[in-house]
Amino acid sequence: MKTKQYLNEQRLLVEKALAEYMLPAEGLFRQHIEAMRYSLFAGGKRIRPILCLAAGRAVDDAPAVEQALMPAACALECIHTYSLIHDDLPAMDDDELRRGKATNHILFGEAEAILAGDGLHAFAFDLISNRTINTLAPERLLAMTHCIARAAGSLGMVGGQALDIANENRDFPFETLRDIHRSKTGALIKSSVLAGALGAGADSQQIQALDAYGRQIGLAFQIVDDLLNATATTEQLGKAAGSDAERGKATYPAYFGITETRNKAREAVELALTALKCFDHKAEPLRGLARYIETRSH
Ligand code: GRG
Q1: What InterPro entries does the database record attribute to this sequence (predicted)?
Q2: Which of 64, 89, 184, 194 gets the most CB atoms within 10 Å of its CB?
Q3: pLDDT for res 249
Q4: What is the pTM of this model?
Q5: Which residue segments constitute the domains of the chain, with CATH numbers given?
């Protein structure tokens, strides 16, 4: 199956599951849940949940496994969406456009947007710990929960954002940029792969290989994000293009120029593909995803 078709089918499956799991906007907390739903259903490529499902398939392609991974896959999307809402706030990147629509705080106000992000963050762990929708063995769920919580927190995404903010308007060595990318964006992407693998019962050799794959595609994803910010249009991206240069942000293109940055993204994807050597045809979706990450246009 072509990667484009696979991505489309998986995205629809994830959206169907999100629609089933997500709290309805009714009752006492209607307005708050409305704000959460607005960003969660505003579109988005759903790459993190798709990676989780694809990593599970690489280990065990029984349809029941994919079904069993769905709550965790959706939890990853909730965490990602919360991070986007908070990242867009005036205190952070102060953006007005996300996924082609007004950002959460523009529509609901700053306080509501903070709470919508907080609500989605907590809801992610509600999903992954809810026994009525999870069929995986408790020890697998616990391992996945720890993997995702660690990646989302202070040693991962939140830590990376803090490092990014602390270094704004400063000159810093390339190694710091690499650390920011690895934690701010890479950690949640890598944990999406590992959570799928843990849920599907991967052995230690498979975990080691997927750890390397996840690290490389996480890096490639942010390098390409830097490239797109510098080269694509706001219409293509559904978010402000050229904002990194405007803010004088350190990025891969700022360090290396466009051509060398493209080479670095390709190198990371090649390393990711090499890491999958021990997997058979069941890892084909993961291979397609790595190539897609290098060539994506938004
Ligand atoms: C805790 C107050 C508080 C804030 C946290 C953690 C955080 C703010 C922000 C996370 C950092 C962040 C948003 C990194 C950018 C990652 C990135 C490249 C996002 C775009 O992801 P895509 O392209 O987006 O997958 P779609 O819209 O397709 O889902």
Answers
A1: Isoprenoid_synthase_dom_sf, Polyprenyl_synt, Polyprenyl_synt_CS, Prenyl_diphosphate_synthase
A2: 194
A3: 85
A4: 0.97
A5: 3-295 (1.10.600.10)
